[in-house]
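Researcher: Here's a chain I'd like modeled. Treat it as a single chain, no partners, no ligands.
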Amino acid sequence: MAELVTFLLPALPLLGLLLTLLLGHYPGCEAIVRLSERIAGPRRNRDTSRRPALPKPPRSFAPGGGLLIALGHAQRPPPLPA
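Model: Modeled as a single isolated chain. Structure tokens:
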């Protein structure tokens, strides 16, 4: 009997959620609606307070990071046999 309780104990939250869904109540639905209303709330006109865009720095085509290490290893000859 103890093994059955130990086996079913982790499944209780899932069974509770399944029961509420079968009864037609969707937990968290109100929170999702409030969050979506907050995100899609009244839009402010951002053009009036927007700063002028700074020019982008020129793009560098030099390798960096892992590619730089890989290119450094690729240009080196194999070691001489001892």
